[in-house]
Amino acid sequence: MSLVITRSRSLVLHAGETLLEGLERTGHVVEYQCRSGYCGSCRTRMLSGEVEYLSEPLAYVANGEVLPCCCVPVGTVSLDVGTERDYESDGGAYRTQSELI
Ligand code: FES
């Protein structure tokens, strides 16, 4: 079982679901384009845990980052990602993923 902890929620990934698909299903805001590890648009900060890539991504991934479109958690992971409500409650202070790059 893969548990994902985010800014305000936790979720369990369904069988066969990527990390991105699980985040989308539960209302999280994650930018994406290729959904295959090429573009890096979905780059997300991982606060703790470990992921396994379904295939080796071509986009650069620094330590402490993941590409949720093409990976699954190994056990429990904690991500710095939130829902639209999380972003609104921050009064606009929280930046989108692309602004963090
Ligand atoms: S959406 Fe392109 S690398 Fe994830």
UniProtKB/TrEMBL annotation:
Residues 1-87 form the 2Fe-2S ferredoxin-type domain. It comes from Pelistega suis. This is 2Fe-2S ferredoxin-like protein. InterPro entries: 2Fe-2S_ferredoxin-like_sf, 2Fe-2S_ferredoxin-type, 2Fe2S_fd_BS, Beta-grasp_dom_sf. Pfam families: Fer2 (PF00111). Transmembrane segments: none annotated. GO terms for molecular function: 2 iron, 2 sulfur cluster binding.
